[in-house]
Amino acid sequence: MAATHPWDQVTHDLREEMHDLAHFSTIDAYRQGRAALWATFALLPIVWGLDMMTGFMTESYEQYVAVWADNFLPGDTSDVIVWVGAITVAAGVLVALAPHFGADVLGIWLVLLAVDLFSVDQMAHLAVGMLALAVCCFAMARMMRGDHRREA
Question: Which pTM was predicted?
Answer without folding.
Answer: 0.83
